[in-house]
Design a protein that fits this description.
564 residues, alpha/beta, Beta-Lactamase, 3 domains, seven-stranded mixed beta sheet, 19 strands, binds zinc ion
Length: 564
């Protein structure tokens, strides 16, 4: 199990991370107005902010590197001799620079900025801080850039005179050459560092993207991918095999072609974070995506509205039993809802079994069966196994086909509570889809607890949202008296990572089973019938709920149109 903190220093640096734009403003290099201009330019051209700023002639690359050095964080830079202060470079011996692949760039006050190929090695940093009484900030560069710059600053790599001054204990040095250690210590360090950074920054996805030159590691948080770090291909191979080991990928999985999925857990500051790892071969090497889910924080992020919507489902499923179908499009948060319901049961008195493909996160005191492992080849054999385990609650993540739908309904009639899921647009169409499986409608009706359909709606950042007009194509959907209401659109600020949105909330359309609904199912009634029945029951559709959110300034018209 990887632990956090390869070095306390690096983590401290991370927590003080600031955005490039704000750093440049703080350093009086650009104004707020110029930043806005550059952000617009950047978005239009799909380039990095730094590139946009230099392209517009607002700052030079050196300005940026200098400013970045002022933030206590590791930044990737294109190291070249022009950004090295020759006087500062003489603070260390060429030998020290070569052995640790480190070049000091400049010194400002008691701050020393250095560039390293392997910034995960904290020992030379500690050495420099001890020797010169400075605070060292580290940036990362490619080995190629390092070699070019080294030769220009200190002379050719091979013909260095051996100078003992400034040398630190090098007994372990070989282990860290080029960041590729013997054994597994190196990849572990890399993984710990990356996961530590990701968890502290509330990142939910980490992408490892191999190219011919190296591997780019990018973090996604709040729907934005940001470039974080680059590692050499060779380290990447070791990182991958370590990640596979952590993810408990079996030999059998390794011999399989295509996507391999596994999962593991890390504990950071008493928070358990579940990580789903996805490995996929590309022409340049294996691509990895790590999906982080901190179950506690997901539930926190759902907000009060989302939580009370789930509460309603929990109450229903505990009083009515039967099958609760939770539907929605992809990425609508269905797994989260299921997991919330499962974890609401008392594990001391109830037995919960899940059948998943893949297991997304580990649930405490729950038996989780992964399809594709230990002889469980499909959902049906998973369900059979689950039923043999004498469960009270069963969760089957993907329901499809007549046989499975029928088995699930029979299990519910046998007294089990069943949670299951499939793709559907709304609650009414979910019922129609169930009828289309051709399972006996009497069976479907008598085993039904209810149908819930859901969406995750992005919530506007309250700090930076700006007034907007209701789009003309939406006017038909809105009541006359609401047409004059002020709605808002996203803008983007530091608080929301320039996305304009501050998290997501969950909305659910829940249609609980009752005598009328059961009869309607037995009669095989139509989509329109179910829909108007639902409205008569006073159940708002998800479109209506999202429109309300838009009219209350909680979400944007764009978000409505993205969802419906
Ligand atoms: Zn904002």
């Amino acid at each position: 199990m990887p632990k956090l903190a390869p070095s306390g220093k690096l983590l401290l640096m991370t927590t003080q991370k600031k955005r490039l734009g704000d750093i440049l403003i703080d350093c009086n290099l650009i104004t707020e107005e110029q930043l806005k201009e550059a952000l617009g330019f950047q978005r239009d051209r799909g380039m990095k902010l730094g590139e946009a700023l230099t392209e517009l002639g607002l700052v030079t690359e050196d300005d940026i590197i200098w400013a970045l050095g002022n933030q206590l964080n590791i930044s990737f830079i294109h190291l070249n001799p022009d950004i090295v202060d020759t006087e500062v470079s003489r603070m260390i011996t060429p030998e020290f620079a070569r052995d640790h692949k480190l070049i000091p760039l400049y010194k400002a006050g008691n701050q020393l900025s250095v560039c390293m190929v392997d910034p995960l090695d904290s020992r030379p940093v500690e050495f420099l801080e001890g020797k010169f009484g400075v605070i060292v900030s580290v940036s990362i560069c490619t080995a190629f850039d390092f070699e070019q710059t080294y030769s220009a600053v200190y002379g050719p790599l091979d013909v260095q005179e051996k100078v003992a001054d400034g040398e630190i204990d090098n007994t372990e040095k070989q282990n860290f050459e080029r960041g590729i250690p013997k054994g597994m210590e190196g990849p572990e360090k890399v993984i710990n560092y990356i996961l530590g950074q990701a968890i502290i920054n509330k990142v939910n996805r980490i992408h490892f993207e191999p190219s011919e030159k190296g591997v780019l590691i990018r973090f996604r948080s709040n729907d934005v991918l940001s470039r974080k770090i680059e590692i050499p291909i060779k380290v990447h191979h070791e990182v991958i095999s370590r990640l596979k080991k952590l993810s408990q990928i079996s030999e059998r999985d390794l011999s399989r072609e295509g996507i391999i999925v596994g999962h593991f857990r890390v504990t950071v500051s008493n928070r358990q974070v579940n990580i789903q790892s996805i490995f996929y071969p590309t022409v340049n090497g294996e691509m990895v995506i790590l999906k982080l889910s901190d179950f506690g924080s997901i539930v926190e992020q759902l907000g009060r509205a989302g939580k009370s919507a789930i509460e309603e489902l929990i109450t229903a499923v505990k009083t009515t039993h039967g099958v609760l179908y939770i539907t929605g499009p992809r990425e609508s948060g269905r797994t989260t809802t299921h997991y919330c319901i499962i974890s609401s049961y008392d594990a001391e008195t109830k037995k919960m079994v899940t059948i998943e493909e893949p297991v997304v996160a580990a649930l405490p005191k729950t038996t989780q069966i992964q399809i594709g492992s230990s002889g469980i080849d499909n959902a049906r054999s998973g369900l059979n196994l689950a039923l043999m385990l004498d469960p009270d609650v069963i969760y089957l993540d993907h329901l499809s086909g007549k046989d499975l739908t029928q088995e699930v309904a029979f299990a519910a009639l046998g007294g089990k509570t069943v949670l299951t899921s499939f793709l559907a647009y709304d609650a009414s169409s979910s019922l129609v889809k169930l009828l289309e499986t051709d399972v006996d409608p009497v069976l479907l009706a008598s085993s039904l607890c209810g149908v819930a359909n859901q969406r995750l709606v992005r919530v506007l950042c309250p700090k930076c949202r700006q007034p907007a007009e209701i789009p003309t194509e939406m006017l038909d959907l809105i009541n006359e008296e609401d047409k004059s209401r002020q709605i808002f659109k996203p803008r983007g600020c530091e608080g929301c990572n320039n996305t304009g949105y501050a998290g997501k909330t969950l909305i659910i359309e829940f249609l609980p089973a009752n005598a009328t609904l059961r009869q309607m199912i037995i009669n095989r009634q139509t989509y329109q019938d179910f829909r108007s029945f639902s409205r008569k029951q006073g159940i708002k559709s998800l479109e209506e709920k999202t429109l309300d959110m838009m009219l209350n300034g909680e979400t944007s018209a764009d978000e409505f149109m993205r969802l419906f």
